[in-house]
């Protein structure tokens, strides 16, 4: 049984073995040999493979390199993204939440914004070429993505949806998004996220 607050890091490189080994050798480590995540907590690296989610299956099918960060989700948490940043010891600027938006009619899309900021709906509408944008219904969000709230990933959604990401994503070396369930984050290069999802990058976050 996992102790409260225990965090696990799982390498899930899906590139050629030689390239993957090189990437692992050059990943920053602390004196104990663990990956450096900027965490103040005890971060444990384990080789046990986590159960696949549609998000991880999607990335593996595309041969995209990513890491999985696993932590004990607190059911009482209200801000899922901020909980992930806190428990994983990550800069909130690198952790993005995935929101479902709609145009008030039938069109839906995904919007990625830093967890400590809010989505500017007018800006999202402009980026998507819509006249207006509003937050999607919770039931629609789960139906369209196939994920539960708090575990919605931009990868492997049940229905392919347009994606718009805040421009802050391009300012970080690694971006973190939900891995497809609560308590699971995917760490990935921003360029890979944008290319794989065909995401529109625009200033859509507000304070």
Automatic annotation (TrEMBL):
Transmembrane annotation, as ranges: none
Gene3D superfamilies associated with the record: YbaK/aminoacyl-tRNA synthetase-associated domain (3.90.960.10)
Sections of the chain in a coiled coil: none
Record-level Gene Ontology MF annotations: aminoacyl-tRNA deacylase activity; lyase activity
Residue numbers spanned by region Disordered: 18-47
Pfam families named in the record: tRNA_edit
Any GO BP: translation
SUPFAM superfamilies linked: YbaK/ProRS associated domain (SSF55826)
Keyword terms of this UniProt record: Lyase, Protein biosynthesis
Domain YbaK/aminoacyl-tRNA synthetase-associated: start-end pairs: 83-194
Keyword Lyase assigned: yes
PANTHER family: CYS-TRNA(PRO)_CYS-TRNA(CYS) DEACYLASE YBAK, CYTOPLASMIC PROTEIN
Family stated for the protein in its record: Belongs to the prolyl-tRNA editing family. YbaK/EbsC subfamily.
Protein name: Aminoacyl-tRNA deacylase
The organism of origin for this protein: Siculibacillus lacustris
């Amino acid at each position: 049984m996992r102790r409260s607050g225990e965090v696990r890091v799982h390498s899930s490189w899906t590139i050629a073995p030689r390239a993957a080994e090189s990437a692992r050798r050059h990943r920053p480590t602390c004196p104990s040999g663990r990956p450096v995540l900027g965490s103040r907590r005890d971060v444990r690296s384990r080789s046990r493979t986590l159960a696949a989610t549609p998000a991880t299956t999607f990335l593996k099918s595309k041969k995209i390199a990513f890491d999985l960060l696993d932590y004990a989700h607190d059911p009482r948490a209200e801000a899922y993204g901020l909980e992930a940043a806190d428990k994983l010891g990550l800069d909130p600027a690198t952790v993005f939440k995935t929101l479902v938006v709609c145009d008030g009619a039938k069109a839906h899309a995904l919007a990625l914004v830093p967890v400590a900021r809010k989505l500017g709906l007018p800006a999202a509408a402009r980026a998507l070429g819509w006249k207006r944008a509003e937050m999607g219904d919770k039931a629609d969000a789960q139906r369209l993505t196939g994920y539960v709230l708090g575990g919605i990933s931009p990868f492997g959604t049940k229905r392919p949806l347009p994606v718009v990401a805040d421009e802050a994503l391009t300012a970080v070396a690694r971006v973190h998004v939900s891995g497809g369930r609560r308590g699971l984050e995917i760490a990935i290069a921003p360029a890979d996220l944008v290319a794989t999802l065909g995401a529109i990058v625009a200033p859509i976050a507000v304070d």
